[in-house]
């Protein structure tokens, strides 16, 4: 049976007359009669009793009707999903993200994507900058939420999602003595807890350069490759962490967040979305609501 025959059959079932069904479908009545005749021949059973009063469905037609409705509904759904997939609005979107994206940015992104593309499945992986860059170059990620600047091979698009100033994560007892404010000199005296240099080379260089330009030693006591690990090291008395301002929304025992009173020379800590320009998903459209 052809799909057109199934639609013709349902139209006659709903209208109760071949003439009315033909008008609804926008085809000639003889063409509709021929379509039904071919369907009956293929099934080997009569579907309608024709009379001057219209077309009365046979028991066989009544048994088939709901199954045909369900089948056509599923077929239409499948075709619609295929069109959305072609437009980049269905399938699986592989997203890598640094831990700072978990706060505010990722929930907002999920809401925007759900609104724009409800059939799009999200595969979320928390990864470092380094890991995401490698995955983007290998094509195993569709989009990375990373700290900029980054260098990724191949043509890439980028969008800034959040721009943060740096604040100091300070051991609680020290913060109380300093009245919850800290200077670059005091940071240098305590030493730093930092992300590894190879993880965020630009940020690492900018922070150490800012300290040296202010006349202070850039001494790193401890490296930690995750934000929560930095906080744990600060709470343990390893030194002062310099983190993006969003971190102040986190309540971490033993740590107080302090403004840097002379930190104007410190770099911003940007969170960006980056993806290949050859990506099949319309990511600019997906980000429209963010």
What features would you describe in this structure?
This protein has 11 helices and 12 strands. Helix 1 packs across helix 3 and helix 1 crosses helix 4 (59-86). It has 290 residues and is of the alpha/beta class. It is rod-shaped, with a radius of gyration of 32 Å. The longest helix has 28 residues, at 59-86. Strand 3 (91-97), helix 5 (105-116) and strand 4 form a beta-alpha-beta unit. The strands form 3 sheets. The chain has a 5-stranded mixed β-sheet, sandwiched between helices. Strands 9-8-10-7-11 form a 5-stranded mixed β-sheet. It has a two-stranded antiparallel sheet with strand order 1-2. The model has no long low-confidence stretch (mean pLDDT 88). It has helices at 3-15, 18-25, 29-43, 59-86, 105-116, 129-138, 172-177, 184-190, 201-213, 227-235, 283-286, and strands at 48-51, 54-57, 91-97, 120-126, 143-147, 156-164, 166-171, 192-194, 220-223, 240-244, 255-258, 269-276. It folds into 3 domains: 3-86, Arc Repressor Mutant, subunit A (Orthogonal Bundle), CATH 1.10.10.10; 91-163 and 271-289, D-Maltodextrin-Binding Protein, domain 2 (3-Layer(aba) Sandwich); 166-267, D-Maltodextrin-Binding Protein, domain 2 (3-Layer(aba) Sandwich).
């Amino acid at each position: 049976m052809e799909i057109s025959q199934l639609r013709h059959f349902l139209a006659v079932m709903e209208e109760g007359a071949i003439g009315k069904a033909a008008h609804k479908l926008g085809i000639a009545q003889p063409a509709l009669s021929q379509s039904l005749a071919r369907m009956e021949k293929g099934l080997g059973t009569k579907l309608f009793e024709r009379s001057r009063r219209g077309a009365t469905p046979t028991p066989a037609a009544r048994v088939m009707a709901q199954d045909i409705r369900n089948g056509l509904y599923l077929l239409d759904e499948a075709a619609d999903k295929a069109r959305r997939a072609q437009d980049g609005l269905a399938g699986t979107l592989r997203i890598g993200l640094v831990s700072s994206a978990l706060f505010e940015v990722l929930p907002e992104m999920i809401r925007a994507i759900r609104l724009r593309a409800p059939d799009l499945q999200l595969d979320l992986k928390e990864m470092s900058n380094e890991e995401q860059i490698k995955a983007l170059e290998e094509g195993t990620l569709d989009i990375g939420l990373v700290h900029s600047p980054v260098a990724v091979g191949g043509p890439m698009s980028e969008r800034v999602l959040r721009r943060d100033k740096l604040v100091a994560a300070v051991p609680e007892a020290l913060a109380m003595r300093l009245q919850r404010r800290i200077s670059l000199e005091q940071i240098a005296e305590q030493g730093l807890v930092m992300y590894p240099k190879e993880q965020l080379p630009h940020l690492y260089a900018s922070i150490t350069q800012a300290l040296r330009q202010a006349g202070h030693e850039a001494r790193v006591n401890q490296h930690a490759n995750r934000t929560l690990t930095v906080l744990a090291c600060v709470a343990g008395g390893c030194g002062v962490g310099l983190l993006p301002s969003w971190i102040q929304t986190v309540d971490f025992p033993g740590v107080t967040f302090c403004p840097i009173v002379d930190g104007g020379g410190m770099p911003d800590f940007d969170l960006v979305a980056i993806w290949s320009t050859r990506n099949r998903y319309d990511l600019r459209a997906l980000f429209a609501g963010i």
